[in-house]
Amino acid sequence: MTDRDHDAFRAEVRTWMQEHLRGEFAPLAGCGGLGDSRYDPKLAKRWEQELARGGWVGVGWPKEHGGRALPLSQQVVFHEEYVRAGGPGRLGHIGETLLAPTLMAFGTPPQQQRFLPGILAGTEYWAQGYSEPNAGSDLANVQTRARLEGDSWVIDGQKTWTSWAHESDWIFVVARCEAGSQRHRGLVMLLVPLRQPGVTIRPIRQITGDSEFNEVFFAGARTEASLHLGAPGEGWKVAMALLGFERGVSTLGQQAGFEREMECLVEVARRNGAARDPLMRQRIAHAAVALDALRCNALRVLAQGDEAEGAPVTREAYIAKYVWSNWRRDFGRLAADVLGAAATLPDDDPLAQKLRQVWLFSRSDTIYAGTNEIQLNLIAERALGMPR
């Protein structure tokens, strides 16, 4: 596609956002997601349906599954312009960008026909049931059990740090289905309805004061015998393929969000005088340059192929989470230093509120989705080929 085509598409996205992210949806503008105290999940679900009507859900999905099959370059444009226009955090993210591609790769035609339309329309929402109290970074240690009983799987166990479970309809669950199995063997990936007896969801209160994570308890919860992705016993393969989609094009939207936070920090630094400090200016400049480097690495990963289609995970992909999470942890510290005393003194200034939230939430960035220690192990063993 030509530069003119990309410019026209960028203008199309920007215009649509300006015309639709107003009126009823104006309160969502600039909201980060369920961890943002201003975020209204009921309104966010109506926003997902508004996006769906506009054709902005599943923009990269194949047309046979209802998507627009946009080229990668235009998908990048959409995710970046969505965030730059103030688009709120997406409640449909887990279903659209994680489960849907996994369904397309491993699901049966009836499973695809049953679940993809609800994701595409913004009417069904999904949570991810991976981590457990003793199986966070060490995911292969999962102890949640699933057994076939008649025409159903019966599930017992616990999942934790489950994003958005309290606002979701379904959850995909990694569970142990073979008695006596250990580690990566004997697992199954199940699609489980959350609104049923036998499922208890308890929100986890975060340091920010909000709750976007949950504990989910299964006590005899059930799902249909046919609702497993891949063969029972091969759940690890499916689970790892799903995690591969986290390195997809939506990461550019995440980094566009970081750009917005950077703009907020610069504005506060100019306003409160922190920008007049030479050392503070130097730290801000270093953060800005490093953010540009993150974007370049993300684009390089995307340009090197689609690992879901069998291509190996590149070294650049292996370093991505480690690099961005450390950048944002350090950026959180910088935000607190720019705020100075205001970092611990709540007020009505929306920019200061945003930076305080970044400071608090960024403490978790190097822990969730694989701790720094686990990321370094992956880089050493898989990217560099070093011995265990």
Describe the structure.
With 388 residues, the protein is of the alpha+beta class. 46% of the residues lie in helices and 14% in strands. The strands form two sheets. The protein has a four-stranded mixed sheet with strand order 1-4-5-8. Strands 2-3-7-6 form a four-stranded antiparallel sheet, with no helix packed on it. Helix 7 packs parallel to helix 9 and helix 9 (315-339) packs antiparallel against helix 11 (372-383). The N and C termini lie far apart (45 Å).
Properties at a glance:
4-stranded mixed β-sheet; 11 helices; 4-stranded antiparallel β-sheet; 388 residues
Question: How is this fold's topology laid out?
Answer:
Blueprint: H1 3-20, H2 41-53, H3 72-84, H4 93-106, H5 109-121, E1 126-129, E2 145-149, E3 152-159, E4 170-176, E5 187-193, E6 199-204, E7 213-224, E8 228-233, H6 235-244, H7 250-272, H8 278-303, H9 315-339, H10 350-361, H11 372-383
Parallel strand pairs: 1-4
Antiparallel strand pairs: 2-3, 3-7, 4-5, 5-8, 6-7
Helix pairs in contact: 1-3, 3-7, 4-5, 4-6, 7-8, 7-9, 7-10, 8-9, 9-10, 9-11
Strand order of the largest sheet: 1-4-5-8
Overall pLDDT, averaged? 87
**How many β-strands, per DSSP?**
8
Q: Catalogue the unreliable spans.
A: 306-311
Computed CA radius of gyration, to the nearest angstrom = 21 Å
Broad structural category? alpha+beta
Brief account:
With 388 residues, the protein is α+β, with helices and mostly antiparallel strands.
